[in-house]
Amino acid sequence: MKKLFVIFFALIVVFSFAKTKLTFWGFMMNDEHAKMILNKFMEENPDIEVEYVQLSWANGFDKIVTAIAGGESLDVVELGNTWVANFAERNALENMDLFFNQYGKNYVGWDTVKYHGKYWAVPWLLGTRALFYNMELFEKAGLNPDIPPETWEDLYRAAEKIDALGDEIYGFGMPAGESYSPWQQWFLPAVWGTGGDIISEDGKRALLTSCKVKETAQFYKALSKYSLKTKQADLAKAFGEGKIGMYVSGAWDIDYLETNYPETPFNVVFIPKPASWYGTHASFAGAEVLAIMKHSKNKEAAQKLVKFLIRPDIAMEVAMIWPAIFPSHVEAGKDPWFNDHPMHKVFYEQNTYAKPVPSIPAWPKVQAVLTEAIEKMILENTDIDSTLFEYNLKIQKILDGE
């Protein structure tokens, strides 16, 4: 009898100290950073153990798809916001409406995780784009570096004057020759700045032939005359070397430029809007979002991890690992860190005008077609109307599921 009691007591002890094991797949943190952050979580939640798997942007999407298809047990996954609709459509994500109801007023970026009127993830870290400009080139061109461009016309005139400085100097840097940057850095945000879009709100109609898209295309093509057109990384390098007056990029280029080109004087401002009386300073809304997988067997523990990661102090600690993204909490901008990093503060505030891509599962196909259309106009100098008409048909076929 005593032996049975000992065995029974031992089983109780083992059961009492059994830990819930969570899997967390992410992109932003490497193993060292994840250990530092997640150890804090496990100290606060000694009954939960978290296994972190670092993904890469090159193949992370495919790995998640493969894991889902193979029935692999996933709990919390960091997603790029442009993927949310795709995974929600696959019925792979847990609905997060309750999170929105509880935390919605304290966080921004919820429109990046919304699909068919419901929320499928929680905005964690936000990233956007702003305008970099070379202050020395502004002065050489007779421009006041303390009065940067606020409108499309301001930017066009500045680009024209800077471009006239010499054969090796370009007024503007325009991304081309790669998958995302041609539409992401400014063309599509410029469309949004006019109040337009390339797809209807219900996701059923292509709008490339609309007046506001044509207006943007005409401006963009005219600006391309004074632009260096190449890959985004090459634009950053050329800007650092003093060969470009302005370009649009993310906050990651602040550190890149200060480290590699410390003699180049530059500043960062909001992306120009169409006119002083019209439009907004729209930019692309990139976001790292946290999703709980539909088939997670540890949803209560997963919710605790998500709540921990979105806390302003924790999110800021993660953001400082790579200061190109910033916490989604509404008061994150009050962090003292921003006092010493005013250019980063511009990006944080630019998020106010940032907009996500249309929330449709077919977006990866649409963006490829949009990139091709933009490059046709700025690299091959094709007719705007005929190009937009041709690619509008291509996008419409994608939306129709053909």
UniProtKB/TrEMBL annotation:
Keyword Lipid biosynthesis annotated: no
Xref: InterPro entries: SBP
A Pfam family the protein falls into: SBP_bac_1
Lineage top rank: taxon: Bacteria
This protein's UniProt keywords: Signal, Transport
The keyword Transport appears for this protein: yes
Stored PANTHER family: MALTOSE-BINDING PERIPLASMIC PROTEIN, MALTOSE_MALTODEXTRIN-BINDING PERIPLASMIC PROTEIN
Protein family per UniProt: Belongs to the bacterial solute-binding protein 1 family.
The protein's name: ABC transporter substrate-binding protein
